Amino acid sequence: MRPFELSLTAVAAAIRARDLSPVELVDSVLDRVERVEPLLDAYVAIAAEQARRAAREAENELAAGRDRGPLHGIPMGLKDLIDVAGTATTASSRVRAEHRAEADSTVAARLRAAGAVLVGKTHTHEFAYGLTTPQTHNAWDRDRVAGGSSGGSAVAVAAGAATFALGTDSGGSIRVPAALNGVVGLKPTYGLVPRHGVTSLSWSLDHVGPITRTVEDAALVLSALAGHDPRDPASLPAPVQDYRPRPGALGGLRVGVPRNYYFEHVDPEVETAVRRAVDELENLGARLVEVEIPMARYVQATQWGLMAPEATAYHERTLRALPDRYEADVRVLLEAAELMPAGDYLRAQRARTLMRQEWARMLAEVDLIAAPTVPATAVPADQQTITWPDGAVEGVTDAYVRLSAPANITGVPSLSVPVGHDRAGMPIGMQLLGRPFGEATLLRVGHAYERSAPVRALAPVV
After folding, report:
1. Mind telling me which Pfam families this protein's record contains (predicted)?
2. Domains of the chain, residue spans
3. Under a CB-based contact definition with an 8 Å cutoff, are residues 359 and 256 in contact?
């Protein structure tokens, strides 16, 4: 296999075995970027020369015996909400045309310290306020949506244009594009990964996390990202740990299978693939337990009741000063939320508190929940709605956020893992949701499933 085709875990091992150098790896990925980027538009900016320089530095450090860990010399993409000193953070918006970061965000600084090499900044749905990333094309079918808002990051990883990437997730924005492009996406527990230096969409829902080829890769990146930072008021002093999953059976683990909500209005091919994956978890030793998702009827209202006013508050000044620089879909959402009564926001906060309590009770009975990541695979780029077999019509964005939002509202960790393809060849994802700071369990289960499934190739872009 060519270096750009390898997983993070594989290239890290090859570098330490002296079978591959960081320079060879970065050159391979940059060649891949040059080939696929005109077709996919995953990146808003590419830092080729800086990446080559950083790769040479990594090679020299490793030759001198200074090993920074498994990310040393590994090429990555960062969603263009994440500040990197001296580079633009445009949020894929004309509003930020003149912006330039003065300092690294916490996550960029931690990845730099770990020796990771920045290939470029990846496209997002403008200010992360959407679930399709319209400027980027799906890695498996360029006529379909990439998913969002971390669409550029997921497409870059799926196409071999980055070995790993970071995204942000306020309502599914890591997991949705990961599922639609056949890669792994992890939304950590709220407060585990600091957001200092990351442009906000909705401060009480925002998370930062990895998008990777494999579950083990996600664990390696999370190990570098996690840890308290007092500059993020939401950051929690959780103990830092090595998240790498250990191989083994799943005996004794209780996997909750929802009897409501998560399998309602879901494409039959998606349901079949996810239920097959859940059965495989049982074959690996887990015990399946039916669970009732609490307060399911309030999820959508609570998600939008929190996100809309927080996003509008963040954009208050620029929305008044530069309204014409926003894309129409985002401007309408921001302006509409200005009319939202304060009481609605307070009720959404109260609903979130109650939902967290009920989810804690449910997760006391099982170790994790297994469910579809999204109810349908990637739709054509011009499709606005999905019509379900019972005649119900749902907007594409509402459909994609519906199954991912509960983890943002409650703050629990959620991992999306590829579990197959539909008849059109489009990827299907299963999400695993766990207890707060239960990432190690999710990664263990996801890794066990992954080892039992056939090896996945990169998206067949060219």
Report:
1. Amidase (PF01425)
2. 3-251
3. no
Q: Which residues contact 146 (CB under 8 A, 6 or more apart)?
A: 42, 132, 133, 136, 137, 138, 139, 152, 154, 155, 177, 180, 181, 378
Whether 121 is catalytic is no
Question: Cα–Cα distances in Å, from 182 out to 162, 418, 429, 458?
Answer: 14, 5, 7, 9
Q: Per-residue pLDDT for 98 more than 90? A: no
Joined together, the tokens standing for residue 63 give 């030759």
Structure token pair of residue 411: 């703050």
Whole-angstrom distance, CA of residue 248 vs CA of residue 418: 20
Task: Considering the candidates 7, 21, 93, 173, report the single residue annotated as catalytic.
Answer: 173
Can you give the pTM of this predicted structure? 0.97
Q: Where are the alpha helices (DSSP H) in 288-373?
A: 299-314, 316-321, 328-337, 342-363
**CATH class entry, domain 3-251:** alpha beta
State the catalytic residue, choosing from 21, 79, 93, 187. Answer: 79
Tell me whether strands 117-122 and 75-79 are parallel, antiparallel or unpaired.
Answer: parallel
* Res 112 pLDDT > 90: yes
> Is residue 462 very low, low, confident or very high in pLDDT (cuts 50, 70, 90)?
low
Per-residue confidence (pLDDT) for residue 246, from 0 to 100: 85
Write down the catalytic residue from 93, 149, 404, 416. 149
Q: Has 404 been annotated as catalytic?
A: no
Catalytic site includes residue 79: yes
